[in-house]
Amino acid sequence: MNPRVIVAGEALIDLIVGEDPRRPTAIPGGSPANTAIALARLGTPVTFLGRFGSDTFGELLRTNLAANGVDLAYAVAADEPASLAVVTHTSDGPAYGFHVSGTADWAWQPTELPDLPAEVRAVHTGSLALALEPGASVLGRWFAAQREHRVTSFDPNIRPALVGPREEYRQRLTALWAVSDIVKVSVEDLQWVYPDSDPVAVGRRLQDDHGTPLVVVTLGGEGAVALHGGRTCRRRAAPVSVVDTVGAGDTFSGGLLHWLDENGALSREGLRSLTEQEIDQALEFAITVAGLACTRPGADPPRRAEAHAALQRSQGMIGS
């Protein structure tokens, strides 16, 4: 495979706690891994750069990515076990508990991070892989270096229980934002990092400070706002029957990157040249695929045909 997008970061196991807490269900997850699967299912050639534990869960994660069409040429065989996220569903959405001490995802070594071929158009990363040391600093330096050669895309996907003191994480977020061409960030993320500020205004300020070509603030069931070239473009989400929101934001990231790649905009010049209509179309696509992911349990991004069928239905309703 000649990948056009590299997704780097964690692949972990979501232990879903159901009605019987003694029997949780193990489901492959991890924000970057979910985004890689979303890209692959939509048809974008993608390689996942991750560390896979030597245990049964590590093999499950590797097998799941490969089965979904994600290339694993840069996969690292690690001695450490896989990370675990315990997911309990509440009336406010999924609640997470993590078992990450001494696990594979956070032990990156510089020698494990590859030089990438010129045809790679973008590198996407984020979430815990860029928040937990010692690997976060190693991966962060590699990510920053990629900006000399290709588009860089960042999704903070903050887990407050793991990222440390707010002020320290704010500095980390700012440093990563400064080396990113695309930042997709949820309103909840910005509200946690900047609790006394309007999230969209924070996104605009950080964009202005660092010259970020495209910032997208996701608003959950309300849709998303794109900040681009001084413009603010808002797209509302069509209502869906929500079963589970796990992986919706990761699927949004995959949908956004796929649309940009498929429409010739996954370059720095392409990003800066986006028209307002194109931004609206990109948001519509990303919101649609994220909405589809919410209609079934677990992180389960839609495939290409399903996504385009949903778009046609939505556009038909608007036109009727």
TrEMBL record:
Alphabetical list of SUPFAM superfamilies matching this protein: Ribokinase-like
UniProt keyword list: ATP-binding, Kinase, Nucleotide-binding, Transferase
One GO term (biological process): fructose metabolic process
Keyword set includes Ribosomal protein: no
GO molecular function ontology, one term from the record: fructokinase activity
Domain Carbohydrate kinase PfkB: 4-302
InterPro entries the record matches: Carboh/pur_kinase_PfkB_CS, PfkB_Carbo_kinase, PfkB_dom, Ribo/fructo_kinase, Ribokinase-like
Kinase keyword on record: yes
Family: Belongs to the carbohydrate kinase PfkB family.
Record protein name field: Fructokinase
The organism of origin for this protein: Actinokineospora alba
Taxonomic lineage: Bacteria, Bacillati, Actinomycetota, Actinomycetes, Pseudonocardiales
